[in-house]
Each structure stands twice: as C-alpha cells, then as structure tokens.
Amino acid sequence: MVSGRRLKERGPAPRHTPAASEILSGVIVNRSDSGAAMQQSSQGSASRGERTGGTPQPGPRQHDTTAGPAPETLIEIPNRRLHRHTRVKPGEQTTTIRQAGPGTRGEPLAHVHVPQDAPKGGRMARPPFTVTGVDGATLCSVRSAGTGRYDVYGADGAPIGRITRHPGRLLWPRRVRWSVRPAHGGPELAAEVGPVRTWVVLCVISPLYFVCWAIMAVYGSLALLFGDKESAKEDAKWEMELPAWTRWRTPDDADAALEYKSDRVYRLVPSRVDWRLAYAQAVLHVWDRG
Asked: Where are the residues of the annotated region Disordered (predicted)?
C-alpha cells in the first residue's frame, strides 16, 4: 500500500528524452547519407548525360573531324616519313597531323596516306595522297594535275580546290610562291616563302656563309681522315637555315588564313579557308621544305 501511494504521488514516469549528442550524431549520419546519395545521383546523371547527349564531365578535349578544327588552332606535320613513304609498311599511315597548341598533348587530328608504290615525283609532282580522320573516314584526297598543280577532292569525289606551287623567278634565291584557289568561288589565297627583308639579309651574308661552310668542310674531312666520325658528322650538319615563314592570305586581308611558323607548325583559321584545303596545303608545304 505504501509503495502504491508513493507511485501515485510521484506521478507517471517521465518519457525518455534522447541526449543532444545522440541527436547530433543522427543529423550528421543523415546528412552524410543524403550527401552520398546526392553524389551518386549526380554521377548517375552525368553518366546518363554522356549517354544521351547531355553535358559530360570535363575531360580531355577530343577533335571532331566531321566539324573541322577549332576557330583557330595550331597543327604540326612531321615530314620525315613523307620523304620515306616507300618504306612505310602497308596499312600504316605515312604521317599524322597533330595539335600543337598550348595545353594540348599532340592529339591526332588526321592521318596522311601516301601509296607505298607511288613514285617520288619531285617537288613539282608529288605523289597522290589521302587525308583521313582519326576514325578512318576520308576527309580529302590530293592528285597532281601537272607541273606544280594539285587538285583537291572531298570525300564524295567533288573538287574542293586547286593548289599551285610556283617556282622562284631568280636562279638564287629560289623564293617559292603558293596559291590556293577554291573550286566553288571565294577569294584565292597566295603566299611567298620567307619575308623579303630576310631574303635580302641572306643574300648579303651568303658570301661569308660559303666561306664558313668551306672551313667547316675542311675540318670535317680532317676529322674523318683521323677517324673521328662523330666530329665529322657534326661539322657536316652545319648549314644556314633558309627563310621559312609563310603566310597564306588574300590581297585585301592582312590576317593570314594559314601561317607556317617554324618546326613544321602551322596556324590555321578555318573561317578564312576550307580546312581540308589547308590540310592539303600544309602537307605539300612541309613536304617541300625537305
């Protein structure tokens, strides 16, 4: 009886209230779970976006060969295999057109294919070649149309334009000129290899160069005579670099549509020239550089 009276006086037992630490830990767990769920949801959305054509996550920039290059890009074309196309294994590309701008990793833009059995032809009649995308689709083909003239065709066989190599007017220096004429109208691009000022300086110092070259040739012969082949090779490599800067542009436009800078690198502005013509011209030009 006493215990029952005491229970009535104390009233009902208090409800259990969770501690603040328990509440905080529950909130943290819930937020962590919801954050993980949101992260999984965003990753799933990104992957679904890549599959359905949405905006993918940032990654290495890929070149779309069907749409052409970026508004302005730098390309590089190695020329060694062009001169040795007869030694290239069947089925392999002769050389590769690559990106050369800052931040790029030399990603391939297109491949150049020269038939292994094609005759070399010389500077005024290069063998035919085809330019394909990285996916193997044909972008354009180039065929010789006579001395120094080359016709460029699209993937469907329709003509795109004509590229012409004009030899130098003087015996020396032989300042080569190029012209690019679109097949369906549009302004013609013209270019001369090397600025006039550079050629003038070259002509002035050329006598001194030949004297230095003769001295180096003598040193190389003596080194070879005494069995020092390495020194002989180094002396034989000594030569004067000819002017190379070339800019293709229209007579009324100061900005170049295609520009050869140095080391087989070209700056291309596709809004000023069909980029397939630019690819073909760049291959012919770097091939001509030796």
From this structure: 1-109
